[in-house]
């Protein structure tokens, strides 16, 4: 190693799902939405004046912040926006997880949490889920430097109740509890209303899944004015201009379109419920999903084999070569046509054995 390399901040990065360069791929591997975003986003993009590109964007992204605040019935001072919820959560780690006590999150969860904890040198403890992938609130009632988990959880799709989360938030008045609601619009109940009562609860959501705008990179957090103020102080100490002008304009237009959101989610939920039957018929077992994916374990054939054989047929799903979750495939819910192609491919693969 060169001398200077001893002083490098070493990181083991998060590995996102593959984005294939070729066309003709049925892409069920990164929980993208198969349907288009709101027509209001298209209109905002067409109306965008490129002369504005000369100018820095509003550092507070107020147009987008106000639109989100209006949509969710909170004050603008309770909303923080970032470049996808990954950026929002990274900022939240830096802001709120700043003690010597370990941050708690499940052992099976979004695999970015331990990466952020490592890069920011935050101690953490991974709490085992139950056999059926549930969170036991009692496990989160002990000294800690913060708590985070997704609801529904990823990659399991399992939804926890508002009561469970309320219990965890209430029992931890000395920590910030972050609930990552990336998939809440697919049938879950958000804990957003609890932010009015608990000033240590931060709820994070994203435009990437339910709003079909993963490529625009918009995430947001809603919480008490105090939490948001602390996050903004950190953000303005790192990079003032995270949200670009095009994103702000398209995001502000899209978030107001409740109808598009509801219709898109309803379609995905219908396809998901049908997929549960189709996969069960083919011998797959899975925890009940309330997200836009199913975490399914094939019978009599390794998940990795199914993953590889689907890939050869240009159908991409997600597989992790790790203990426990390695027995499963995470399959994003696509259009009905895409799912039919998946079932046909699975029939062939299972027959081959
Ligand atoms: C997809 C996802 C995110 C990040 O989404 P962004 O595209 O960065 O908004 C965050 N948390 C979980 C659990 C996710 O699945």
Any chance you could write out the topology, listing elements then pairs?
Elements: E1 26-27, H1 39-47, H2 62-72, E2 79-82, H3 84-96, E3 103-106, H4 113-119, E4 124-127, E5 146-150, H5 162-170, E6 177-180, E7 201-206, E8 219-222, H6 225-235, H7 245-255, H8 258-281, E9 293-296, H9 303-312, E10 315-316, E11 329-332, H10 336-352
Parallel strand pairs: 1-10, 3-4, 3-5, 5-6, 6-7
Antiparallel strand pairs: 2-8, 7-8, 9-11
Pyridoxal-5'-phosphate binds at residues 31, 84-86, 110, 150, 154, 180, 182, 206, 208, 214, 219.
Structural descriptors:
11 strands, Aspartate Aminotransferase, domain 1, binds pyridoxal-5'-phosphate, 10 helices, 2 domains, alpha/beta
Q: Tell me the radius of gyration.
A: 21 Å
Helix content: 25-40%
**Can you count the beta strands?**
11
How would you spell out the order of helices and strands?
Answer: EHHEHEHEEHEEEHHHEHEEH
CATH-derived topology of the largest domain: Aspartate Aminotransferase, domain 2
Annotated CATH architecture of the largest domain: 3-Layer(aba) Sandwich
What is the domain total for the residues? 2
Total helix count?
Answer: 10
CATH homologous superfamily designation of the largest domain: Type I PLP-dependent aspartate aminotransferase-like (Major domain)
Bound molecules: pyridoxal-5'-phosphate
Largest sheet: 7 strands, mixed
Strand content: 5-15%
What's the arrangement of strands in the largest beta sheet?
A: 2-8-7-6-5-3-4
Tell the overall outline. Answer: globular
Q: End-to-end span in angstroms? A: 47 Å
Q: For the record, what CATH class of the largest domain applies?
A: Alpha Beta
Instruction: Classify the secondary structure makeup into a structural class.
Output: alpha/beta
The pLDDT mean sits at 97
Low-confidence stretches: none
């Amino acid at each position: 190693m060169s001398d200077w390399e001893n002083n490098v901040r070493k990181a083991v990065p998060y590995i996102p799902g593959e984005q294939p360069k070729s066309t003709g791929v049925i892409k069920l591997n990164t929980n993208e939405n198969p349907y288009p975003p709101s027509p209001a986003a298209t209109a905002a993009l067409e109306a965008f004046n490129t002369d504005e590109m000369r100018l820095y964007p509003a550092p507070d992204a107020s147009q987008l912040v106000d639109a989100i605040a209006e949509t969710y019935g909170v004050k603008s001072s309770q909303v923080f926006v970032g470049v996808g919820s990954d950026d929002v959560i990274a900022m939240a780690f830096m802001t709120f997880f700043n003690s010597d006590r370990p941050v708690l999150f499940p052992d099976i969860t979004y695999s970015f949490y331990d990466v952020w904890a490592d890069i920011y040198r935050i101690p953490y403890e991974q709490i085992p889920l139950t056999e059926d992938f549930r969170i036991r609130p009692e496990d989160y009632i002990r000294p800690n430097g913060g708590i985070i988990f997704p609801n529904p959880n990823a990659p399991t799709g399992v939804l926890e109740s508002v009561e469970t989360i309320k219990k965890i938030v209430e029992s931890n008045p000395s920590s910030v509890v972050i609930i990552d609601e990336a998939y809440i619009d697919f049938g879950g109940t958000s804990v957003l209303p609890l932010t009015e009562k608990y000033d240590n609860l931060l709820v994070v959501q994203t435009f990437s899944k339910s709003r079909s705008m993963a490529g625009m990179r918009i995430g947001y957090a809603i919480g008490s004015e105090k939490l948001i103020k602390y996050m903004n102080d950190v953000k303005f100490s790192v990079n003032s201009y995270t949200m670009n002008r095009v994103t702000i304009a398209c995001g502000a237009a899209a978030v107001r379109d409740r109808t598009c959101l509801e219709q898109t989610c309803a379609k995905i939920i219908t396809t998901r419920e049908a997929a549960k039957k189709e996969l069960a018929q083919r011998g797959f077992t899975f925890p009940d999903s309330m997200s836009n994916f199913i975490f399914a374990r094939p019978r009599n054939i390794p998940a990795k084999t199914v993953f590889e054989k689907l890939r050869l047929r240009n159908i991409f799903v997600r597989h992790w070569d790790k203990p426990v979750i390695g027995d499963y495939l995470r399959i994003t819910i696509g259009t009905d046509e895409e799912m039919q192609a998946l079932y046909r491919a699975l029939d062939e693969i299972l027959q081959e054995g």
